[in-house]
Amino acid sequence: MSTQARCRPMQDLLATLPALPLGADGKPDYAGADTALLLQLCEHAEDCMRVAQSGLQGIGTLLVHAAPEADMGSIAGDVIEALGHLLAELGDLAGQCLILAGACRAQLASRKAAEAEGTHARGSPPLPRRA
Fold first, then answer.
1. 24 pLDDT exceeds 80?
2. DSSP letters along 38-50, please?
């Protein structure tokens, strides 16, 4: 019952991110990115988000079952604190992946609309044709 579409989505995302061009302001330049790169980033970000959310659910389920042990003191407080920090970071990761995927999808939609009108946004290459 795995929701994981690829073997290593976080590795894939981190390996692909450096190819995303930056604008003069240091922020990602989605309009200047290659269409294939945007598609890859979107897929990796969405996969990463799904893995993080699934992991959060799994850890939450384990914590419910471990609650009696924590109440009795057999699980140290620093362990619970460390898990709390991990859960917060995984939640932030999932949120940032959603933002990244949304920005990529918006740029891809803009290109598709421009292609339908016979123009290309800021000189970007056209979207690949489906067979």
1. yes
2. HHHHHHHHHHHHH
